[in-house]
Amino acid sequence: MSLTQFNNETFRSINELADRFSEANPVMVFLAEYMPYALGILVIGYCLTRSNRNRLMIVFAIMSCGIAEILGKFAGLAYSHHQPFAELTNVHQLVEHVIDNSFPSDHTIIFFSICTSIWLFRRKEGVIWLLLALCVAFSRVWVGVHYPIDVAAGALIGMISSMVVYKIIPLLPFAKPLMKRYAKSDTKERVENF
């Protein structure tokens, strides 16, 4: 079985759930279309806390997201295809979307880069956000605007960029003084041992 055939068949098996379990469609539409607003509120909420560690986490998350988006653009230049609703017949398209390069999924890149950064700083609540990122990725296939390979690539790009930022930034000469300034006394040891 070729990768294209596997991708198409996997897309069909997920997208057909929109017909078989139509009562779940409003939830999937919400996840696919409106969860980025909830993520934005989360980011603002973490920034407004008095925790310098939370602010540092969001700085890392935003840097990771920016790098991931750039990597996603390069990945889109190397490989491209249109959305499933533009290429296949009988697709359950539940949300409006312009026809452009579907690879990789920007929504998935954003969610996985930010949610992985949260997980790296806050393991327990980060798991919840990673599960939410997974739900958003799944919903993008359910509503008919992405293939599974689009969301898998987006997740991989987002996660790798977050892990690289988390490991590399503290090693840069200018970063350690800034991180110490942001970090509370109970996290200074962690910053020094990054």
Automatic annotation (TrEMBL):
Q: Which residues form the Phosphatidic acid phosphatase type 2/haloperoxidase domain?
A: 58-166
Q: Per its UniProt record, what InterPro entries does this chain match? A: PAP2/HPO, PAP2/HPO_sf, UPP_Pase
Name the SMART domains for this protein.
acidPPc
Q: Which residues form a coiled coil?
A: none
A Pfam family annotated for this UniProt entry: PAP2
This protein's UniProt keywords: Membrane, Transmembrane, Transmembrane helix
Q: Please give the start and end residues of each transmembrane region.
A: 27-49, 56-82, 102-121, 128-145, 151-175
- List the PANTHER family: AT30094P, SPHINGOSINE-1-PHOSPHATE PHOSPHOHYDROLASE
Task: Please state what the protein is called.
Answer: Undecaprenyl-diphosphatase
